[in-house]
Each structure stands twice: as C-alpha cells, then as structure tokens.
Amino acid sequence: MHAPTSSAPSSGRLADFDSASGSLLERALFNHRGLVLLLCLATTLLLGWQATRLSLNASFEKMIPKEHPFIVNYLAHRQELAGLGNAVRIDVANPAGGIYDQHYLQTLQRLNDEVYLLPGVDRAAMKSLWTPSTRWTGVTEEGLEGGPVIPDGYDGSAASLEALKRNVERSNEIGQLVAFDQRSSIVYVPLLEKTPDGQALDYSAFARQLEALRGKYQADGVEIHITGFAKVVGDLIDGLHQVLSFFAAAIAITAVVLYGYTRCARSTLLVMSCSLVAVVWQLGLLPLLGYQLDPYSVLVPFLVFAIGMSHGAQKMNGIMQDIGRGTHRLVAARFTFRRLFLAGLTALLCDAVGFAVLMIIKIQVIQDLAMIASIGVAVLIVTNLILLPILLSYVGVSPSAARRSLKSEAAVEAGGEKHALWRFLDLFTQRRWASACVAAALLLAIGGYASSLQLKIGDLDAGAPELRPDSRYNRDNAFLTQHYGASSDVFAVMVKTPAGGCSSYDTLKRVDDLEWQLRGLPGVDSSNSLALLNRRVLVGLSEGNPKWYELLNNQASLNMITAGAPRGLYNDDCSLLTLYAFLTDHKADTLSRVVERVQAFARDNDSEQARFLLAAGSAGIEAATNIVVKQASHDMLWWVYGAVILLCLVTFRSWRAVLCAVLPLMLTSILCEALMVVLGIGVKVATLPVIALGVGIGVDYALYVMSIVLAQLRQGASLSEAYYRALLFTGKVVMLTGMTLAIGVGTWIFSPIKFQADMGVLLAFMFVWNMVGALVLLPALAYFLLPRQAQPAATPASGEPAHCTAEIHHSDECCGERRVVPLA
C-alpha cells in the first residue's frame, strides 16, 4: 500500500483547498495565521524580558521532606537544637606546625571574626576556639574548675600558649573542634534560612564569600578546608557555567544532525527556533509565578528543548513529505497538523504526567522541578504543535529537501528494494524474528529486575556525591574525616521529657543504654550525651579513677552535673535531651542501621517520662529524605504508568495497542534501574526524577509509530505494510531524534558536576532504549497482539491524497472529509 508521489490536482493546490475544512481548532489557527504569529511574537518578547529577572539559588528547607515525622520533630524543636541543621565547617590548618602558634591563632581569630559578621550566620550557635561557648572542665586539688578555652588575658606568650594547650586537652574538643594531631581546628558555622533583612540566604553569594576568605587567609600561611550544604550548593552553581557550555554543545550537535538529515537550512532553523522559544517562554514564566531555578532544576530547560526537538522534527518531516508530493506548503502544514496534532498532544500530556507525578514526593525541590518542567511542556503545545506548522506554512522547505525526503519511497515504487535498515526492521513483523525479540526482551526484563533489587536508596559514597570524587569539596571532606573523630554527619536523637525531667536517673539510664547500642554499630564513630557527660564528670570527681566511669544513681549529683552541662545537651527548661551520634559517613546502609536501632529502642522504652524522637542533625535529615524517596520511588512509577496507560488508551482505543506501546517503556525502566546498580548510583533527590522523566519522554516515540501503524491497519494494510509506512513517515525521525538527543546528553559525562554526568548517562540510555523499543520491540509485540486480518483498504475521498489516510482514531476527519473505519 503505497501513496502516490503526487496526488490529484485538487489535493495539493491552494486554490482548490477548502479553508473551511478541518477541525474548529485547525480553522481558528490556520485561517488567522498572521494574528497567531503576532501573539506569539509579543509573548516571546514579554517573556524574554521576564526571563532576565530569573534568579538561581537553593534552599536548605526545600531539600528536606517537611511532612516526614523526623523533620516534623526537628522543626518543632529547631530553636532548641541550634546548629543541628544547615551548617558549614571551616577547618584552618597550620602546615608549618601545630595550632599552638601565635601567628596561627591570630589568623584564626581574624577569620573567626569575619565569618561571625557574614549575613546568614547563626552567631549565637557559632563555635571555634575563640568563641566563649567553647569551654574546658578540669579536676584539681580543690575540685572541678572550668572556663573558656582561650585563657583570660591571652597575649600570645609562651605561658599563654601552654595554658591554651592544657585547656584544649581538658575541653573534650579534640576530635571535634580540634584535630587529633592538633595541627588544625574548626570554625563551626550554623546558618539561618533567612538573613536579618528577611531575604532568603543567597547560597551562591555566601559560597563566594567563603572562597574569598579562603584565598585571603591561605595567603597568610594557613590551609583552609570548607564543608557543608552551603558550600556544596555554591560549587554546584559555580559549575553551572560549564553546564551551559554542555547545553550549547548538545544544541549544536542536534542542529548539525538535523540539518544533515534534511539538508534544508530554513526548516532546521525553524525547528531549533521553536524549541528555543519554548525554553524562553518557560524561563520567562518562572519569575512571574514566583519560581527560581536551583542546581537540580537547571537541567529542565534542556529537557524541554529536547522534547521540543523531537516533536518539531516530526512536524517538519510530515510537511516536507507532503510538499515533496506536490502539495502546497499551507495545505501540507494543515494536513500534517491533522495527522499528528492528537498524537503530539497525547505525547506531550504523557511528558507532563511524567513530570507532574513528581508532585507526590513531599520534597519541595522536587515539587518545584515538577512544576517548572510541566510549565515547559505546556508551552511546547503552543510552540511546537501550533507555531511551528504555521511558520512552515509560510516558508515551507527547500524543493530538493522535499524530494530527498521521499527518495526511499520513490525507489520502492520504481521497483527497487527497500532500504537495508527498513528491510531489517521489517523482519520484526514476522513470526520468527518477533518471537526471538520478545523472548530476548523477557530475558532482559528478568535479568534487569533481579539486578534492580540491589538498587540502594540514598548516597553510596562519602562526601558530596553530586560532585566529582576529586573535587575541591570532596578533598576537603576527606581531610576532615581523616583528622577529626566528630564528622559532619551528625545523627541526633531527641529525648522528650516533662519539664525538669531531663536529669532524672531513669531517663539518663535509658539514654545511656541507647548510646551504648549506637556506639556498637558499624559506621558510628563516636557519641555524646548528658549521660556520657555524667560518667566523665564522676571520674573527675573521683580523682580521675576510671573505676568510677559509671552513671551514678544519685539524683542530687545528677542535678549538679546537669546544671553545669553545655546547653547543647539539653534545653533551658530541661524538657529535651539530645543524643548525638557522629557517623563515619552518610551512606544509605549506615543511616538505615542507625534508624532501625533507634526505632526499635524507642518501641521498647518510650514512656510518659521519656520519648525518643527521630531525628535531627545532617544525617538525621538525610535519613528522613531517604525514607521519603524510597516510598516515592514505588508510588511514582505506579502513578506515571497508570496515567500513561490511560492516555494511550484514550488515544488508541485499543488495549492491545496500549500494551505494544507501554511494555517497551517498562523494559527501559527496569534496565535503567539495573544500570544504576552497575554504575553505583543511588536513588536520591537528584536522580529520582530521571526515572519518571524517562517514562514520560520515552512514550513519545511509541505514540508516533503506533499511531501510524494503527491507522494503516485500519485502512486494510498488513502489519508489514503498516509498519513500513510508519517507518517512512515517523519512524526515521524517531531514530534521528533518539540518537541525536542521546549524543547530546551523552556529552554531560564530562561535566564537573557528577550528578549531571549521571543524569546524562541515564537519559542517553533511556533515549536509545526507548527508541529501540519503539522500532524493534513494538512491531514484535504487534505481531502477537494486533489483529493480522484487516479490512480492505478504504478508497481516499475525492481530492484527498492517499497518504493522508494515516489517521489515529476509528472515526477521523482527514483532509476535510469524514469517514468511519471499523477497528480491526
């Protein structure tokens, strides 16, 4: 069943075309083309100006699941847990000696004072050797003594330095604020979410200020190492300048390949321009709606561009083929609009669902990403399904490009053979090859699923996995982990008691029991609590005899020790104790072990006198995030597949066709999870969206191929003929865009930002496998699922080109005529 290279005169000539034909939407758009273009131009100028107001920042609170019980507990006691959330650690090392050096201490003091004055610093909770909250406690002949670590009257003399050394050794800060080798010390800087003027903390600016301080003080002979959420975000934002270069490279690659396929500069330029216009509209709408980009959503504009290129290339190809058959460019644009608008709209709705389903994840940064992406997909409906065909109806394509687009088809009609690739793909419409393909897909699915069971939730590496292992940040983090016992990965358990009850023996005994259990877990380096302080003080009161390292059941003694304890261990009214577990890392397994142990202990020991609440500290917050991500990773796929299946069912009106389109997507999802296991990528905030996006974007290919196959089958073609027509009309563009976009995002592997490189690998894999699924597995499944006996081919209505029978529904309006074709 082949369409003629030209059609009846009335089918392609503009003078014979009925402008009142087509749907109401088509008539409203194409009969008022000039007005549509003016509106689009005005919108582009307005939103382009708005895009200049778009800001790039991040927020610590947006990264945490606020509705999770752990975070609810943390936020409820946030004011009493100063420094247990968002904080920066600045390590100042003396490469020429130890910390007991006059020049080093002067440098540390100046750095401490400058950091203290930075906007966004929680000054009351800041700690270093120079803050008065850093104190020592010692046992003398006269009893217990204490004071600030920096001795009163410090003047840099040898005697003052010796006194400082004694105070540090008695402060219990070695391994926490002071390195084990005593060659460096830490300035601990908790951060507020808002600056004193009420504005959100600008993490990019704050990170630049930290880097300026690093450069300034390293010139004085010290080495600076900085870790913390604010520094990670700052490094990510700095790396975005290189990210933009990768975007530009991907766009250039796409343009070159598309032009190489069409050899038509004007149509290539229009497809690129409409996709870029969609990005401009998206970026312009964000500040109007109160959104801003962050390091995790900054990749979304390129995904919108990629989706736009895929749909734009399909529209351009359809118009190009019609013009090649002798159809006027306006008529060709309208015919293509009729054939592909519904398929394109359904595909974009599936894309939107893939993004919107992320809204079920109660983490604001992911919800913002979902909304930003959904906005981008919404504007694609206008720019690539409407604006592009209208623009092509004005400028058309070059005649040579139009003729070249039908070269394969013309060669077959002249008695030649099909292209070798088309002959190979056609094999999958035959029983032998279809059976082998389905069997291979089944084996891949089983193997991939078995491997995906090993997929971990959360980070699998120490430091900041978003950055390269050899990045400055991860080198700094490795230094701190090596030289300090109290890592930045702090898991804090809150123990709620009645007012004044935090020092009761029964409560402290339970805290002591839990602390002992936690210290025995792999991954827990050390701990601290009011119970541990009581043990240490009792030894001090007993002339340092380790035999008294006990929790004494004497309430008067416990009250006395509690009264002099640091406020970080309990709150002002003694109704909240805090147990700190310092972890060696924040890997998923480490966090899971700690959470399971604390929850089990709480179930057995909670009472009216003491309730053990999880969790605060950086590790506690990350544990809550992992739990939310784990649950969402399952719910998300159910929702996205449910929505995609429903949309495909509405479009195809055939459950068999839905299976043919969706099963290849499921195989890709399974194999993607297996690939994450192989590459050592965990499911977390940065990677979770990729899994949903792969489903939404991947269904585009299947929709375009299946819509033509179904239409041809309903016109009486065999599966082989229907698939061949689909390959000529949409399949080759599916192959083009799939490979091009895979190459484009594949360049991200060289990005300095590791999570972008991971996303590039996963997206490239999904682009390729979804393409392979649409071109190989889909026809193989169709052989078994779709009926092979069809109606005789319907005769095109008078004046209607035969190629216009590529319709989607059982009852379709095509080229101005209406006919009913029974579903086979």
UniProtKB/TrEMBL annotation:
Domain SSD: 276-394
Subcellular location: Cell membrane
Gene Ontology cellular-component terms listed: plasma membrane
InterPro entries with a match to the protein in the record: MMPL_dom, Mycobact_MmpL, SSD
Keywords: Cell membrane, Membrane, Transmembrane, Transmembrane helix
UniProt main location, coarse: membrane
Any Pfam family matching the protein: MMPL
Transmembrane feature ranges: 243-262, 269-290, 296-313, 340-363, 369-397, 433-450, 636-652, 659-682, 688-711, 723-750, 762-786
Topology with respect to the bilayer: Multi-pass membrane protein
Protein name, as recorded: SSD domain-containing protein
Phylogenetic lineage: Bacteria, Pseudomonadati, Pseudomonadota, Gammaproteobacteria, Pseudomonadales
